[in-house]
Predict the structure.
Amino acid sequence: MTEIAHGAVVVLPGEAIVSRWWRTIDKGVLGALVLLFAVGLLLGFAASVPLAERNGLPPFYYVYRQAFFGGMAFVVMLGTSMMSPDMVRRLGVIGFFFAAAALMLLPALGTDFGKGATRWYSLGFISLQPSEFLKPVFIIISAWLMASASEPGGPPGRLISFGVLIVVVAFLALQPDFGQAMLTIVAWSGIYFVAGAPILLLTAIGMIVGLVGVVAYKNSEHFARRIDGFLSPDVDPRTQMGYAIDAIREGGFFGTGVNEGRVKWILPDAHTDFIIAVAAEEYGLVMVLFIVALFGFIAVRCLTRLCVERDTFIRLAGAGLTVLLSAQAFINLGVAVRLLPAKGMTLPFVSYGGSSLIAMGALTGMLLCFTRTRPQAEIGDHLLSNGYR
């Protein structure tokens, strides 16, 4: 007898891939992702027009680009979600080595676009940010290593994955990109926690991260400036944070009205890092709560479905991807309301950005793949298949 996770599913002989995909996909999560992208396009019509005007481009130039990259992201997401977990694992491991190599070559071949941090490759018509693509595949290889450690006679996967984490975080910090480095640590810790890490060990890792943060504060002017600004009791109203807080306050419950906001004409990053300020000003708290609810629904739904998953790799990888998506959204929203220091991080599927959209398409495609309805062998069969007698 076979138990079925997330409800009954019948495997029909000769059934088309698309038909089976539609029956087994989590339509709730898929719908929430579509709504997030729709909200991003709606806000793009407001936030990107001032940017286009400053650059002497047609008013909706960046909206069209966001729609184009969003279309590419959804193709990647749907294609990835149709794959088997084994295929996703293989491609993720291969992709990690390419993304890691691209990250390591940034100091020599990358550009900073005048922002003081070398994070991009400029290809003329598009810029690529390797860290965006590195995050989901890092989750895959970490989950694979930790899952292999649970097998009889398996390698020390947890220790190896920790070593990989140190290397990745070091290269991110050299850019410098402390926000992405911290996000990577949080996601890895989520995988390690699900894999059964002792709380004391995670606490020790947190203390080490804090110590590294102190060292970075004393040796990095870029990092120290952001921390000092966050800790200051007063907010300079002429800074991005000051303008964002004023916009959120002005929006109130229902907002000032469509296209009535002023912050998008002032903030240079209104279409990316501070897109939520535009949403709060023009559409009010109602829109902000709607966006938060969508991210919350995706996180809870995915974790709920992964709780009954008996394949160790799928459970760990799915949990890590969920933590990564949720943490990035939390950081972006937290920065906008001054709960966290400024980190220069996009809001998934809502902010403008080609690399961010396509990388998020890959991440959510993997997540949809891992949460698809599939037969779950009885626990006794699962243990026997892993060598337990």
